[in-house]
Write a structure and sequence with these properties.
Layout: H1 20-37, H2 51-66, H3 69-82, H4 88-103, H5 107-120, H6 125-137, H7 141-154, H8 163-176, H9 180-195, H10 198-210, H11 214-226, H12 233-246, H13 250-264, H14 268-277
Length: about 280
C-alpha cells in the first residue's frame, strides 16, 4: 500500500516510509528462501522422486512467483502427503511450503512448518530465524525473541541466512505494537554492528519525526544519504524536505522538494507541497 499523507499543522503532507520497503522485503525473502533451498535443489528423478513430482514442484514454484501462494501451498501439501519418508525432496518441499505460507501471511502455518523442519532435519539457525520472523509478523514478540536467540546461539558469527531479516522483523513487530524504544534499540544495534543501511536510517528518521524531533531526524537523513546502497534514498530525501517544512525553513524545504521532483519525478503530493511553499 502506498503511504498516506494526512494533514499536519500546516495542512500538508506528513511522512511515511513508502511502498518500496515492501518490495524490497519481498525480494529479500526470495533470496533467503533460495539460500535455504540451495542444497535440496540439486535433485534428480532418482532416489524415489518421480518426474511427475518434480514437475509438480516446478509448477508450485511458478505459482509462488506469480503470486498464487494459496495454490502453491496446496500443491506443496499434496507432495508432502505423497512422501513415504523424510527425504531431501520432502525437505525441499517443506522449505518452499513454509515460504509460500509466509507470503500468504499464514504465519501460524509457516511457524508449524519451520518447527517441523527443525524436528525432521535439524535445528538450523535459518529455521530459527524464519520462525522468529513469522512470530514477529504475528505479533508474538516473546516467542519471536526466543527463536531469534536460538538462531544466534547456533550462528555465533551471525552469518546464516535470515539473521538480518529476522532482526529487522523483530524491530518492526515492536514498532507495530507501539514499543518504539525497543525498535530503535534494535535498529541502532544493527547499525553499530556494521549492518547499517539507508533503510535503517530512514526507519529511525521516521520515528524521530513521529516524536516531533526533526533535528534528530535530519541527522539520520544525513547519515543515511552518505551511504550508496540506494535502498531508501527517495524516502530519505522526501522526509528531509518535510523536516525542514516542519522546522519552518520553507525556503530550504522548497529547494529540496524541487530537487526531489527533478530527481524522482513529481506527483500530486509533491506538487501540493511545492505550491504551498511557494506562497510562504
Amino acid at each position: 500500500m502506498e503511504p498516506e499523507f494526512g494533514s499536519d499543522g500546516f495542512g500538508h503532507a506528513n511522512f511515511g516510509i513508502g511502498v518500496s520497503r515492501m518490495k524490497r522485503f519481498g525480494k529479500s525473502l526470495g533470496k533467503l528462501a533460495a539460500a535455504l533451498c540451495m542444497a535440496a535443489m540439486v535433485l534428480t528423478a532418482c532416489g524415489g522422486v518421480t518426474e511427475e513430482q518434480l514437475a509438480t514442484r516446478e509448477s508450485a514454484i511458478a505459482m509462488m512467483e506469480s503470486g498464487d501462494y494459496e495454490g502453491a501451498v496446496a500443491a506443496f501439501n499434496g507432495l508432502v502427503k505423497e512422501a513415504a519418508s523424510v527425504t531431501e525432496f520432502e525437505l525441499d518441499i517443506l522449505k518452499y511450503r513454509a515460504e509460500a505460507e509466509f507470503l500468504l501471511e499464514d504465519y501460524e502455518a509457516a511457524l508449524h512448518t519451520y518447527r517441523t523442519l527443525m524436528e525432521v532435519d535439524e535445528e538450523r539457525p535459518e529455521y530459527c530465524y524464519m520462525a522468529s520472523m513469522a512470530l514477529s509478523k504475528a505479533g508474538q514478540m516473546h516467542d519471536a525473541v526466543l527463536f531469534l536467540e536460538s538462531g544466534e546461539a547456533l550462528d555465533k558469527k551471525l552469518e546464516a541466512a535470515g539473521f538480518f531479516e529476522a532482526t529487522v522483523a523483530l524491530a518492526e513487530g515492536y514498532e507495530a505494537g507501539g514499543n518504539l524504544d525497543a525498535a530503535k534499540g534494535i535498529y541502532q544495534e544493527l547499525i553499530d554492528g556494521g549492518r547499517g543501511n539507508s533503510d535503517l536510517y530512514n526507519r529511525l528518521m521516521v520515528m524521530a519525526m513521529g516524536e516531533g524531533n526533526y533535528e534528530e531526524a535530519l541527522k539520520m537523513a544525513a547519515k543515511g544519504l552518505i551511504l550508496t546502497d540506494g535502498l531508501a534514498v527517495q524516502e530519505l530525501k522526501f522526509n528531509e524536505a518535510v523536516c525542514y517544512e516542519y522546522l519552518g525553513n520553507f525556503a530550504k524545504a522548497l529547494e529540496l522538494f524541487r530537487a526531489y521532483a527533478a530527481e524522482f519525478g513529481s506527483d500530486e503530493r509533491v506538487e501540493h507541497e511545492i505550491a504551498f511553499l511557494e506562497t510562504r
